[in-house]
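EI: anyone free to look at a 390-residue chain?
SC: sure, send it
EI:
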Amino acid sequence: MVFRRYEGLDALRVIASFGIVFLHVYVAAGYPNSLDLFLKCRDFALPLMVLSSFFLLTLSLMRKPEPGFASFFSRRLRRLWLPLIVWSFVYSLTEAFVIPVLFGFEPAGKMPSAVVFFTGYRHLWFLQFIFFGSLAVYPFIYWLDGTRKFSRTKLSLFCFCLTFLYGFLFYTFLKNYTDWDTFSPETDGNLKLFVSQAGNYILYIPVAVGIGLMSGKINDLFARAAFRRLSLAAVLIAAAIHIGSNNVPLTREIYGITMFLAALQPWRKIPSGTLRALATYSYGIYILHFILAQILWMFVAYKNFQPGGAAVFGIAIIIYFISFAAAVLIRKLFPADWLLPLVPVSREVGRQIPANEISFSSGAGRRRFAVPGSSFLKTRIALGGNTDEG
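SC: here you go
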């Protein structure tokens, strides 16, 4: 089976990561009504991140045999759980001591509950979710698919049935048990967030695995121009229904899934070195931006700062690129996945770009600088395919 490179996923990572930054800036700014439409347009962002993570994990497990579960567990622990622990600790310190000092308050004097190291600090629930989800997917792919007792088509159909079943159960009654407001006031806020968000996004895991198992057939379909046009039309229809409706069940899920499927069609390689770098650092941007969003929230809450819609959008762009620059700097100083994981992204075909070199395009030319130790940022050709590292 040929595993091609999905350039569309690399490109949409950039859009999705900005969409997530925008959401947190929008919330910190007090939910300005003028941006409600754009907020619904970016609703595919986190579903795309979940779908791409488990889709690429499925392809990776089908493409290359793992030495064993212990090796797989160790690799995921290093790339997902250790960054969660490190940055949960950093964010907890920042919340307890740094931010109060910046705004002239007495420091809280105590760290958040230890449960934060299980759930992740607020937005870092995503890393824990991907970590636990990958541990659940591994036996399904490695053992069931490896035994060849069932065809991949049947396994895919089984995954899609699980998706429909969970969607039905979730909107019938499970949502009541994962909704934030159902928890007692004494429940830790990070635990509330983890349970609530995990309940919302579990649905995408079997979808991603099922699509991954059928990736060969999907690639064949995308070889036809009619199917490519159909996939884009499906995105437009799903977006129109979701944006035009008011909290109708499953419209957001369908919107995210159609956007993800459209990204699987053949794309040209990302032409801009800057865009490739942004895709590479999408996890770093996700991890780091929340500090700046918290500072913005403090300004809004205690300094009577009320930004309008245009200002919020501009602030989101600024925070996005500051987070990107900080991620590049951290990786340059500490080139370790256990601190800040990166996403391998394809390079231009032609000159072999050194594994530790990232290029940025500007109007007058191209500049390059080295990121020590990032040995996995190699030139990848189409048959190499994406990896599960994102």
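EI: The longest strand covers residues 357-361.
SC: 👍
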